[in-house]
Amino acid sequence: MKRREFIRDVAIGSLVLNLGTKQSLFGQAAQPPDLAWVEGDSPAAITRAAVDLLGGMKRFVGRGDVVCVKPNIGWDRTPELAACTNPEVVKTLVELCLAAGAKEVIVTDNSTNQANRTFLRSGIQAAAKEAGAKVLLPSPFRMKKMALGGEWLKDWEVYLDVSEADKIINVPIAKHHSLARVTLGMKNWLGAVGGARNQLHQKLDQAEVDLARFFKPALTVLDAYRMLMRNGPQGGRLSDTKLQKTVVAGVDYVAVEAAGATLFGIKPEELPFIKLAADRKAGRLDLEKLKIEKRTV
Amino acid sequence: MKKERSKKYRLLQAVRILSQLFFFGLFVYLFSKTHFTGQDYISPVERYFHFDPLLGLVTSIAGRVFFASFALAGITVALTVLLGRVACGWVCPLGGVHQFFSFIFKKAKLHRPKSASAGPLKLKYYILIFILAAALLGLDLAGYVDPLSFLYRSFAVSVFPVLAGAASALIGLLYKLKLTGLGGTMGQFFESLSLNATFQQGFFIGLVFLAAVLLNLVRERFWCRVICPAGALLGLLSLGNIFKLKINTQKCIDCGLCNLQCQTQASPFPDEEWKGHECVYCFTCGAVCPTAAIGFPAWKRAPRREPRVSLERRRLIWTPIAALLVAPFFRLTPAGKRPSASLIRPPGARPEPQFLSKCVKCGECMKACPTNGLQPVLAEAGPEGLWTPKLVPRIGYCEYYCSLCSQVCPSGAIQELRIEDKIKVKIGTAWVNKNHCLPYALGKPCIVCEEHCPTSPKAIKLVETQARLPDGTVSTQKAPVVDYELCIGCGICENKCPVVDSPAIYCTSIGEQRSETNRLLLELLKTDSEPY
User: Fold this and answer.
1) E-assigned strand segments in B154-290
2) In whole angstroms, what is the distance from residue A33 CA to residue A39 CA?
3) Phi, psi of B312, rounded to the nearest 5 degrees
4) CB contact under 8 A, A178 and B447
5) Yes or no, beta carbons of B194 and A142 under 8 Å apart
6) What is the pLDDT of residues B225-255, one digit of tens each?
7) Which residues contact B471 (CB under 8 A, 6 or more apart)?
8) Backbone angles phi, psi at B109, to 5 degrees
9) Residue B466 phi/psi, 5° resolution?
10) Predicted complex ipTM
11) Contact between B450 and A178 using a beta-carbon 8 Å cutoff
């Protein structure tokens, strides 16, 4: 880590901590939790409840903002196979963003299988359009090499429709992955870049952290309504999935990641990318010290 | 005498041009619909081909089985028997293309119609006889010169890829000019068309198409007059010709304009020498006649001087003999005797000999393939396999839940598959090249192939491997191993492998289930009866 970055990170970190203590000093009763952890039968209802618990979408989206909601639309699989984000969750977030005054909500992903297929068959294109989003197929003209300022990734082709948005909301799905063990929010950024993405696997943990720190989502909503337990990251059979009926949301994406790991029965510090992100002060993984609001709706 | 052109035939000429435009438009419309549109099954976008009697006849003879969809060609046959070659003049999209360019070349004074010898017109009949004789030996040559196959292949592999490239350059320019909104809209539109723009031999096939167009500089509608075997077949079928050309000798001023302007050299004047089997009923003669002397009355026949189609007896004998020799000549190569490793046929493709005898090289499958993976073959399948489809995983893989190529094949060379059946079809097998593979060779993590493997359970398993690094240390990584029984040969592993020059995992055709000889593991054979 460079000295300049270190100073910057310390400054940001202490500022964040400071804010936290100030608010608690004033003893505001309505202070939102670090994580909202909601279970329930309806993907839409639990998403709505999670955002409400965090203080409502107005906290994250301002009037006139262009918002990018970034789900995982990577694979040519139907929703019940849990390879792509639940379309109802995406739809609800689009609705909430528009209701909060967003000028435009973009839903997109640089998919792995042919985008024409994944966008349709995941159900996300239809759901997001119905809610009023602009659904964009990834285009080679919208990839631009730019400085990421990462530890490992100095520069890379970035998907402009994501990076140019005023606010980014990350909506990953919780899935098994044979290299990273699980794929959650930070790995989802591989769908927001172009270039030779298959080479990022050579230092996947580093790449995940560098990308997450570049995109800096305003909010992360982890879809664990139906989780993919094996044969990841695309599954293929219903028996590869598990109905968990949960979403976890938070501003601190490392905390969301840590919570996601526990859904798989994995301790957060066991996962190198979470550990690395926490070490770099991108967020916290000590769940026991975080304020977590759990609900069932 | 009053000089006035016939209003009736000028109107008919206009209607005929509209008809050509309509059918060309329909051809392009169906062409543009031949891709993943959001439905698993696309309506019969290949229907055009089924009205083609040449393809129907040759595929049935060469393939030794009648493909039911070709029954529609009966409509074309009936129409031709009654009315003559109206299909050539009013419907054929390639005829329309040739006529359009003939028209342009004439307007631009690049081509000046002059009287020409009728000799070359016979060539197309010999081509037809040659193709039919070769079909008897199971050789399907129709696709190379059939007008629909020729046009579709040229469009799919060359013309539209060029247009897509031009559109792409234009969109790039719009972005450069900061017209992001317009560029974005156009970009989204082109993404949604999913035009395949990368083709091996695209340049070569494009040159052939260009040559066919440029032949219109030599003679108007050169292709239709001299080459087209489908036109020749329809010419032979145009027995009835209810409407026959008749010249009103009292009006005729012997100007010869009709002979000069006739699109297909059917020699309208004198009407006894009119060649009904060459006439495509474009009504140009009727429209250009300065004195409206030309008509096409029903059931009236001018006495004929020439026989219908006069072919020389010697050539008539030698052409099929040459064709009989050409079949073994085409099969001198070892292609038929030993399977080619890189010849991965589309899922649903029939066993190789049957496939070759049915494939009409139209390129429908290559247009439909969502990943651009289906490519025209050059030499792997022998001379008769030229321009048949094969999967080139480095360019595009076989999409797991897709059976579009099998649905759009017009001649049954690829058997139509339901998605649930297609995902079980093995078209080849993946092999790991440990000398190139990152975990095996360099001790680096990767697993990209395993991640993309679409089957469940995955056909690529990961095992721990120890790579010795140049400094003597050992790196332990997860490395891919292929499960032969689960692998379907879709090639996505090869496509996504980060070793971009010579992939560390690659597919070959071995194990393809359509073949009894291209097999590897004997115990995988599932036989119902005991051999002993």
Assistant:
1) 246-247
2) 16
3) -75, 140
4) yes
5) no
6) 999 999 999 999 987 778 889 899 999 999 9
7) none
8) 60, 25
9) -115, 120
10) 0.87
11) yes
